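Closing statement on the fe (ii) ion sub-project.
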Amino acid sequence: MVVLSKGELEQIALPAVQRAAPPLAAVTEVDLSTATAAGGGAGRAAAARAVARACEEHGFFKVTGHGVPAPLLARVEAAAAAFFALQQQDKEKAGGPFGYASKRIGCNGDLGFVEYLLLGVNAAGAAAPSAEASPCCLREVLDEYIAAVRRMTCTVLELMAEGLGLDDAGVFARLVLDGDSDSMLRVNHYPPRPEPEEVPKHGGHSRRLTGFGEHTDPQIISVLRSNAVSGLEISLRDGTWVAVPPDASSFFVNVGDALQVLTNGRFRSVRHRVMVSSARPRVSVIFFGGPPPRERLAPLPGLVDREGGRRRYREFTWREYKTSAYRTKLADNRLGYFETAAASS
Ligand SMILES: O=C(O)CCC(=O)C(=O)O
Ligand SMILES: [Fe+2]
């Protein structure tokens, strides 16, 4: 454990420093421009296959050719940096069940070296945490960003369905496009790693703080964009942690728990974390595409049939899942409670 001494919020014991993870050797890259080009049937089919393979293997891949304009990405990054540079008391005005928070992730004692804005996303864009506290230019640029990223997310979700060979290519995207979709936007700011004298060196390993502890994302899909500062790591099937080289011009996609359920476990909800070891701040923005609270989630019948009727998860509503997940710690396997006996056999 590391106890930082500056400021009240820094008086928190952060999870211990660990050995640096090797870089992820080959991350699947999917160029969306080939998948959406007019008359690009073969390109689209190849992209859909690559997406499905990556979702099965890692639950993670990178998207290029996404069509979200670079100047919009730059404006989001600048507006986020301006928000996090505000005085602490001004940032805290955006607090509440949603809004600004620092160090505390969820409500069950998880801590990270991070501050963030967590916003509900409605059909029109980001729901303000509290009107006067959310700087209006941040709200506006985030709404524009959400519209662009939601469109791109739906293209990716269609490719996933096509890659699985499902007849209904809109089966996942419809959940995120629904007017009641429970989608969220998180803007994370990881401050630069504290000076060496503030962080004891453990056993000769590099100094790393847990920015965001290991977890899977609960929703259907997470679409992440960060600045060029490293920190994101994913866990491979064998449990090895690997570092994802940052790429500020691309997006990274995570399969979430809900998609693991819908695909009867064929797509893998990827375990990931952020370790802070850079002298520069990391800023990341994640769109979490979720279903409406009333939505009944269960493995899609077509995919259950392909496994000889073996259904790995029971049916539940997204509201039920969130209620159950709310009681868990960040690192817990939240899907365990919804598994059927067939899941472990
Ligand atoms: O900030 C990041 O790069 C990833 C954070 C994350 O995994 C999350 O907010 O769910
Ligand atoms: Fe995450």
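Residues 215, 217, 222, 272 surround fe (ii) ion (ligand 2) (CB under 6 Å). With this model delivered, the sub-project is considered complete and its resources will be redirected to Aim 3.
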